């Protein structure tokens, strides 16, 4: 639907980032780093790939987007607002008392959210069930599921990773936001995932590896799925935690710290100047 | 109960293509006709209960009536958070079905003793918890949970239990079935221990203790009116379950009684003390070890009534030497 219009992906990604900084800063909330790393990917998915209608969030033939890394909720809420599901002003209530916009992705009273997440390792199995139902019902719906790198520590991710290729779910697309930093340290120091693309390939997925901030490359990938007939697709996106704000980039601290006061102003100024 | 469930489900599924049975690589021989004749409504998720439950939620959120099926604690405790978040929080139309409630798989060891499932499932928001007492109830419960739109937990026993209900039953979720009438005490039973409860009531009658027997197939939502009227009208309540005394039927009934205004009642939970059974063995053997045979139940009821009557104390009955 919206992806038929030629949305300016760069501008959309920039607005997502600006929303994320304002939301987390105003709310003194965590997880800005992993939201910024996902911004370009989300812009391309919603801007180009996903078939959806914000006027009919329960349209049965819609594509579905599952944000399994629920802590990056500010980026999802931002792209949903930008995609017309609700007014952008509502983002100002993020993390506030009585607001539906919780600090992890919650579906209640938030149009466009398919699944509440926040405990890692839940999204991909549910997405897999949706993909299977879509196949069995002969629908054209595709299911995009974004997971984090730290989330790949969860066994349930690999249960679904085994299952989906066996059932030839080529309507299922994993987007792995590989920003290399998890909650308590660098991924390679906590539990090394490498060789990561080999793992997904060995499980039977059609894998494409790309720079998760290269908009044309992401656009090409998300519009070319499935990469192989009868195989689920996995996009391993190499990203930078905190991307777009120089003092946040690749810093574990910004998994937690909220951009308050001067930090918020500096971050917004940097984002404004970016092309 | 297992056979009753699967044959009833098979008939329902033939008429409603939304029904999907998802098994966790279990049900050898039992699910074969379903699998062969309704392959598009069947799925073996493999030995992966978290994924099984997530898949069920995803399918339910896409319009299906999805059932997960496994044994003992596997479809409940192993994937508890998937049941909580993916199923319950989304009010997904998923029915979690466990075969092997209580000591059904007693000889298999403590991993296979389902002793806390009712407690844990009962605590989950929005989940209807049903433990039918015999094959007749299992059939009716299967129809009821499929007809109900929302998350349910169905706790079954094994195959080959005797039919307790010799006449047609009026089965309604959340509504106890009154099976025996008496004025001296009320026995409230849930799950496959029903046959022992019925026999215990008969044995008590021979001793001059006339008991009401309530089959509480739905543990949540609990039929509180049946509990309160039993308290008012019989003055003593005994809950009977092949489950830990913590958190299951006994706790559910105790919560109602403790908060009831002005209701004085003798009350005792008959179940399994919290802890891992030191023994393995057949279901009957383990029931015997834990005072859950008809004789054991009747003895506890009679002794408690006697002790409390003589001591004028509430709930101070002998504990069969167990803690």
Task: Set down the secondary structure blueprint.
The complex is a heterodimer of chains A (275) and B (323).
Chain A: H1 9-27, H2 32-36, H3 39-49, E1 64-67, H4 73-82, H5 123-136, E2 143-148, H6 155-166, E3 172-178, E4 181-182, E5 185-186, H7 187-190, H8 196-202, E6 206-211, H9 215-223, E7 233-238, H10 253-256, H11 261-273
Parallel strand pairs in A: 1-2, 2-3, 3-7, 6-7
Antiparallel strand pairs in A: 4-5
Helix pairs in contact in A: 1-3, 1-4, 1-11, 3-4, 3-9, 5-6
Chain B: H1 2-15, E1 19-23, H2 32-37, E2 42-44, H3 49-60, E3 65-71, H4 80-89, E4 94-99, H5 117-122, E5 128-130, H6 135-147, E6 152-156, E7 177-180, E8 185-189, H7 194-206, E9 211-215, E10 218-220, H8 224-234, E11 236-244, H9 249-259, E12 266-272, H10 283-289, H11 294-311
Parallel strand pairs in B: 1-2, 1-3, 3-4, 4-6, 5-6, 8-9, 8-11, 11-12
Antiparallel strand pairs in B: 5-10, 7-9
Report on the architecture of this protein.
The complex is a heterodimer of chains A (275) and B (323). Chain A has 275 residues and is an alpha/beta fold. Chain A has one domain: Thiamin diphosphate (ThDP)-binding fold, Pyr/PP domains (Rossmann fold, 3-Layer(aba) Sandwich), CATH 3.40.50. Chain A contains 11 helices and 7 strands. In chain A, the strands form 2 sheets. In chain A, strands 1-2-3-7-6 form a 5-stranded parallel sheet, with helices on both faces. In chain A, strands 4-5 form a two-stranded antiparallel ribbon. The radius of gyration of chain A is 17 Å and the shape is globular. The model of chain A has no long low-confidence stretch (mean pLDDT 96). With 323 residues, chain B is an alpha/beta fold. Chain B folds into 2 domains: 155 residues, 3-Layer(aba) Sandwich (Rossmann fold), CATH 3.40.50.970; 135 residues, Rossmann fold. Chain B contains 11 helices and 12 strands. Chain B has a 7-stranded mixed sheet with strand order 2-1-3-4-6-5-10, sandwiched between helices. In chain B, strands 7-9-8-11-12 form a 5-stranded mixed sheet, with helices on both faces. In chain B, helix 7 links the parallel strand 8 and strand 9. In chain B, helix 7 packs across helix 11. Chain B is globular and about 60 Å long. The C terminus of chain B is likely disordered. Chains A and B meet through helix 5 and helix 6 of A and helix 3 and helix 4 of B.
